[in-house]
Amino acid sequence: MKICHAPRYQGRLTIAERLEVLRSNGWKPATADEVAAMCADDDSVAVIGIPRHLLKRWWELAESDQVSTGFEGFAREIAEYFEYKNWFALPANLLMEVVAASGDKHDNELVPSDRMRFANGVGRALAWINLSDENASIALEAERMRIRIILEPGEGLMVPVSGVRWNQSTLGNSELAVTLLIGSLSTD
Fold it and tell me: What are 47's strand-pairing partners?
């Protein structure tokens, strides 16, 4: 599995600062050799980020009683931003959902991104965005190891068509990981 920043995105953290590996004594920073083996210019898993105003818009919706009516407009703005960045072609059956996980979830079972259960059926995850107001992470299975990628608020990951095994997780004392799932429903 290769990890890089998406074209036209440079986060505050370097890839080396983001990567942790699950060892027998817990999550530890990746070694220089592990980082070198996982970092690449070709995009397999790419770190992305949305502008602060979109993250702020999400929290304004979440704190209002208009989430159900306002989410469609928020999702449209996210899709327009992805089109502007030219990160991937948005499918006709695009869907977006917000999920929240409480507690420290990084050791939970990883699920396949290409056969993922959404509220409207089974589909494929294309990207995840950390909507929390604190750092969170996405745990992934990489060959014979489990890694996690630390994401600041508003940052996320795009995943390849072939899919990966993943799970969201909180960091430190954070009690809630709020994640925007971006995907497409299967047509079969």
Answer: 5, 157
